[in-house]
Amino acid sequence: MVSFKIVRKLAGKTAWVAHVIPGTRWTAQRLFAALSGAQDDGPQEASARGGSRFALIHRCRIQTALLWILEFWTGESVISRCFGQPRSLSPIEFAFDASPWGLGGIVVHRDSQKVLQFFAEPLGDLDTARFGIQIGSCTAQALMESLAILCGLKLWAPLLKASSGVCRVASDSIAALSAARKMASSTPMLNGVGAEIALLVERNEISDLKFEHIPGVLNDLADWCSRRAQPGSSQDRPHPLSGAKERQAPARDDKLFKVWHVAVLNRKIECSLLLSLLFWFGSRLPLGPCSSTFRAKHTRT
Q1: Are 93 and 108 spatial neighbours (Cβ–Cβ below 8 Å)?
Q2: Is 254 among the domain residues?
Q3: Is residue 190 a part of any domain in this protein?
Q4: Is residue 259 part of a domain?
Q5: Second label for 298, Cα 20 to 30 Å away, from 93, 98, 127, 229?
Q6: pLDDT of 153 strictly over 70
Q7: Long-range contacts for 13-20 (Cβ within 8 Å, ≥24 apart)?
Q8: Residue 152: CB atoms within 10 Å
Q9: Do 20 and 99 share a structural domain?
C-alpha cells in the first residue's frame, strides 16, 4: 500500500512532464485513475496525528506506470524537444501488417513510392510463449498488428529520429493504430505493447508520427511480407520489393519488452523499489536544476 498524498504529488509532477514529453501522458492518467479509485473506495488508515484518516492506494494500481517511469528516466542521454511551426511530411513513409504466420513492414519514399526497405518476420517460439498464441490462428490479430508496428518502429528508429518532417505510419488495423496513437489500451496485452511503443518513441525522441488507417487492399506489400511464412505462399518478391533491402525485425525478447512483465503479467515489483522510485521521482520534478543524469533540454524555434 502507498500513501495517497505521495501518489498525488507524483501524479501532479508527471502531468507537468507530459506537457513537454507527450508520450508520458498515459502514466499521469494511470496515476490519476488510481487516485480517483482510492477516493471512492480505497482502504483507510488512521494517522498518528490526531486520528485523522487518509486513503491508501494498492501497489498493483500504479506499479506499471512507475516501472515505465523508471525505465524511461534511466540513462545518461539528454531529452530534447523543439517547439515551433508544424512541420511538413517526411519524405519517407511506413506501412505495417500482420498475419497469423508473421509480421511485415515497409519503408517507402513518399514522392516516388519506391520501397526502400522491408522486413518479413515469421512468428516463432518466443511469440507463442510470450503472447499465448497459436501460429496460423487469427484470434490475436489486433495484438499482432500492434506488434508489427512496435518492431518496425524499433528497427527504423534511426530513420525516424533523423527525419526532417512528420512521418506517416500506416496500418489496416484500427485497434493497433489506436493503441499506438494513444500508447495505451483497455486490453492488457495491447496496453502492454502500447506502453512499449511509448517508451521506444520517447527514448528515441521520435515526436512527429502521423498514424493513419488504410484499407487492407491498399496494404498489399506489407501484407505479402507478413504472409511470406504462410505454408504454400509464394516466396517470389513482388516487383516493387525487388530492389528493396530486406531487414531483420528485432527479436521479441526482453531486450524489446521493458515493462511487459508488470504491464501484462502483473508481476509485483519490490515495495522498497516502488517507494524509492516514488521519493526519487517526486524530488526531482519539475525538471529544473537536477542532476546531469536526469535532465531535459527544451528548445523553442
Answers
A1: yes
A2: no
A3: yes
A4: no
A5: 93
A6: yes
A7: 13/281, 13/282, 13/285, 13/286, 14/65, 14/69, 14/281, 14/285, 16/285, 16/286, 17/285, 17/286, 17/287, 20/81, 20/287, 20/296, 20/298
A8: 28
A9: no
The position carrying cell 488510481 is: 34
Domain CATH for 162: 3.30.420.10
Its pTM stands at 0.72
Q: Provide the domain count of the chain.
A: 2
The sheet carrying 2-3 orders its strands as: 2-3, 53-57, 44-46
Q: Grid coordinates standing for 43?
A: 482502504
10 is in which domain, residue-wise? 2-76+270-300
Whether 147 and 34 share a structural domain: no
Report if residue 256 sits inside a domain: no
Cα 287–chain centre separation = 23
pLDDT of residue 11 exceeding 80: yes
Same domain, 146 and 176: yes
The three-state secondary structure class of 243 is: coil
Confidence of residue 224 (pLDDT cuts 50, 70, 90): very high
Please give the C-alpha separations between residue 101 and each of 96, 206, 232, in angstroms, as whole numbers: 14, 29, 12
Strand, coil or helix: 281: helix
Q: Are 260 and 196 in contact (CB under 8 A)?
A: yes
Highest mean pLDDT among 44-58, 74-88, 254-268: 254-268
Whole-angstrom Cα distance, residue 191 to residue 140? Answer: 14
Q: What is the DSSP-derived secondary structure letter of residue 218?
A: G
DSSP 268: P
Integer Rg of the chain from CA: 21
Per the rule left: phi > 0, alpha: psi between -120 and 50, beta: everything else, 3 is: beta
